[in-house]
Amino acid sequence: MAKLKISDLAKIKDQVTQATSLREGGAQVKVTVHMGTCGIASGARNVLNAVMDELTKSGRKDIIVTTSGCMGLCSAEPLVTVEKAGAEPIKYSHMDDAKMRQVFNRHVLADEVQTQWVLAKGSEQ
User: What is the CATH number of domain 24-121?
Assistant: First the structure.
């Protein structure tokens, strides 16, 4: 067996993390609203309320909505990360409730990434 390189280990870690984070409970999508103090001050509570409202309207049971702390990009808040099974995470910046509703209905439900608000694609290393 060939020696593993650090890049090989990173790929394995990413695959396992992605597979297990969404697999728990049968979820296919995870939406994270970043709720550090900077996010809250920028309107993250309204964003969270909007995504929860859209989730309720959709009736979907395979979507997880969660919160996290600050990502360290205060000037881009409110930030939202959408992770879909089998796809790289997408980080959206400068969100508000209307943008969040569009991201939910078009990206989460219809698989159409809303590129106009994308800050980054992929996981942190």
Answer: 3.40.30.10
Question: Please, which residues have CB within 8 angstroms of residue 89's CB and are 6 or more apart in sequence?
Answer: 81, 82, 83, 121, 122, 123
Neighbours of 72 (CB within 10 A): 11
Which residues face 64 on adjacent strands? 30
Q: What is the DSSP letter of 101?
A: H
Total residue count of the chain as it appears in this document:
125
Looking at residue 22, its pLDDT comes to 52
| pLDDT (mean) for 101-108 | 97
Q: Which of 121, 103, 120 is nearest to 112 (CA)?
A: 103
Distance set, CA 89 to CA 4, 5, 31, 42, 51 (Å): 25, 24, 10, 22, 17
Helix (H) or strand (E) holding 56: helix 44-58
Whose tokens are 């309204």? That residue is 46
Four-residue CA torsion sign, 121, 116, 112, 22 = positive
Reported as a single tens digit per residue, the pLDDT across 27-64 is 789 999 999 899 899 999 999 999 999 999 999 889 99
